[in-house]
Design brief:
Blueprint (H helix, E strand, L loop, with lengths): L2 H15 L4 H8 L3 E10 L5 E12 L5 E8 L4 H17 L6 E7 L7 H15 L8 E5 L5 H15 L23 H16 L8 E5 L3 H12 L3 E7 L2 E4 L6 H11 L19 E3 L1 H5 L5 E4 L18 E4 L7 H9 L3 E3 L1 H4 L2 H15 L5 H26 L3 H19 L4
Parallel strand pairs: 3-4, 3-5, 6-7, 6-10, 10-11, 11-12
Antiparallel strand pairs: 1-2, 2-4, 7-8, 8-9
Helix pairs in contact: 1-3, 1-14, 3-14, 4-5, 6-7, 6-12, 6-13, 12-13, 13-14
The chain binds nicotinamide-adenine-dinucleotide.
């Protein structure tokens, strides 16, 4: 089953529970617009390479399309379609006046210079320019794209329009129309939800061990935030492998080391604490997922827990910070093992929420303080959690299906109000 088929299956399961009107399901089962672009870029050595990119606009029922842009060698139309539909659901769970979209370019950015990345980005903007705009479709960062890439997008789009249009993307640098708190918003939103979930069980941070797959924007920031709150982060990983420190690792030092050395696997030496009588060891990505810890945080890519490894998962709580990290088959296996999953469309919605704040600030050209943003974000995330929890209790279903139900019911109302169905 492909990632998009998997996503549709989840939507259909949720729709079945609430006996959703067939027309609503049909409208939301297909993206409104899918675009593939192919464009040449001159590389530093003078050669020309053709790049393939995508923008999928899944639904603008609730407002302008919204969703990140990914640079990765595995980007495909199917992946972008799945991610775009998850964006529609995510925005609905946190009640944002936004629709869902996603984009990407199929290439490995680590193999290109910074100048080449800038030329590739600008060429992509020229190709998708008719589709995007502050009231049409607003991209944001995702895997391997960051605030620099967002600044190039805003700059190129502004040049094409011969006026300043910073609001065409979110996740920009704070000095150039970005929002305070956006860089770690996805992770911070996840911590708010985690506190609610653990609080319900009376568990305290200092008694909680955490393993994190993926140590980029989302994984690195959530490690820092949780470590600062007293959680024991025992293992982290990136695309090269993982590091396991049973006594707990220094999240900030690990991030500084990863930036310098290129991978967390190189950062064990700096973590050695003789007083703890323990040292760190390298683990594979597979081993990290199977560690016996209290919370497993998935913050890398989709399809990480599948029917092949679901049976070996020992953690009792999984926080999905990545999009689609657990397949539908694995979901069923984990449910039978009584493993609680906090689903992506709720857990990682903090990013798009602060992106929405950035859109609002760009329109006003007036910028808010970090504490104001954090307070507003917390309110939205906690409200969404309460709704999902109540829905899960009402229908005796998982948090994942409950989150989809919350989203579908809101989208149904909007589609009825707009006269679409
Ligand atoms: P990123 O590029 O900053 O980091 C990705 C990390 O995952 C890197 O450390 C990379 O080495 C690691 N990785 C890749 N393959 C791996 C593997 N097989 N095993 C272990 N680690 C692996 O990307 P990001 O922005 O942190 O996004 C991570 C996930 O979170 C994605 O699924 C993304 O869609 C989702 N997400 C991101 C945001 C955001 O604001 N950036 C918002 C919502 C959801």
């Amino acid at each position: 089953m492909t990632f998009f088929e998997n996503t549709l299956k989840l939507i259909e399961r949720a729709a079945e529970i609430v006996k959703l009107d067939k027309n609503v399901l049909n409208v939301l089962s297909k993206p409104q617009r899918i675009v593939e672009v192919n464009f040449p870029v001159k590389l530093d050595n003078g050669s020309i390479e053709i790049f393939t990119g995508y923008r999928v606009q899944h639904s603008d029922a609730a407002g302008p399309f919204k969703g990140g842009i990914r640079y990765h060698q595995d980007v495909s139309m199917d992946e972008v379609k799945a991610l775009a539909s998850l964006m529609t659901m995510k925005c609905a769970v946190v009640e944002l006046p936004l629709g869902g979209a996603k984009g990407g370019i199929t290439f490995d950015p680590s193999k290109y210079s910074k100048n080449e990345l800038e030329r590739i980005t600008r060429a992509f903007v020229i190709m998708i320019e008719p589709l995007i705009g502050p009231d049409k479709d607003v991209p944001a960062p995702d895997v391997n794209t960051d605030e620099h890439v967002m600044a190039w997008i805003a700059d190129e789009f502004s040049k094409l329009h011969e006026e300043s249009v910073k609001g065409v993307v979110t996740g920009k640098p704070v000095m150039y129309g970005g929002s305070k708190g956006r860089f770690d918003a996805t992770s911070r939103g996840g911590t708010f939800i985690l506190h609610e979930v653990l609080g319900d069980g009376g568990r305290k941070p200092q008694d909680t061990t955490v393993a994190i797959q993926g140590y980029g924007n989302v994984g690195g920031n959530i490690a820092n935030l949780l470590a600062a709150e007293g959680f024991k982060v025992v293992a982290v990983s990136d695309s090269h492998g993982g590091l396991y420190c049973p006594h707990g690792l220094d999240a900030l030092a690990t991030m500084e080391c990863k930036v310098k050395e290129g991978s967390v696997t190189e950062c064990g030496g700096s973590q050695y604490q003789p007083s703890q009588g323990d040292s760190c060891r390298e683990v594979s990505n597979e081993e990290l997922l199977e560690l016996d810890c209290d919370v497993l945080i998935l913050a890398a890519l989709e399809n990480q827990i599948t029917a092949d490894n679901a049976d070996k998962i020992k953690s009792k709580l999984i926080l999905e910070m990545a999009n689609g990290p657990i397949t539908a088959e694995a979901d069923e296996i984990l449910a039978k093992k009584n493993i609680t999953i906090i689903p992506d469309i709720l857990a990682n919605a903090g990013g798009v929420t602060v992106s929405y704040f950035e859109m609002v600030q760009n329109k006003q050209d007036y910028y808010w303080e970090a504490d104001e943003i954090e307070e507003k974000l917390k309110k939205i995330m906690v409200n969404a959690w309460k709704k999902v929890k109540a829905t899960s209790e009402k229908y005796s279903t998982s948090y994942r299906l409950a989150a989809f139900i919350v989203a579908l019911e809101r989208l149904k109302e909007i589609l009825i109000l707009r006269g679409t169905v």
